[in-house]
């Protein structure tokens, strides 16, 4: 179900390798051992992909609309048409406060 996590791919250094020995170890020892094996890896995320776009005028927004006039039965009606073409993604942006990566395996606080 789902399958979008990085555990199956082994991409994130905190995810399981999928071997039989990993399932027999204690959870804390296992995750701490993996953290020590990747000294350059950090559980924090400092950047993210932006959901905003630039249009051809250089304006920045989530969505762009164009007002069109439709004449129906002799009456003029204004409609908004969403623009999909000629939009450039903003790209990666730096977060104000670092977040913890979703695949970080250690519980930080118990309730």
Automatic annotation (TrEMBL):
Gene: TUSC2
GO biological process: inflammatory response; regulation of mitochondrial membrane potential
Transmembrane segments: none
PANTHER family (UniProt xref): TUMOR SUPPRESSOR CANDIDATE 2 (PTHR15453)
Source species taxonomy: Eukaryota, Metazoa, Chordata, Craniata, Vertebrata
Any matching Pfam family: TUSC2
Positions of the UniProt region annotated as Disordered: 1-30
GO cellular component term of the entry, any: mitochondrion
Protein name listed in UniProt: Tumor suppressor 2, mitochondrial calcium regulator b
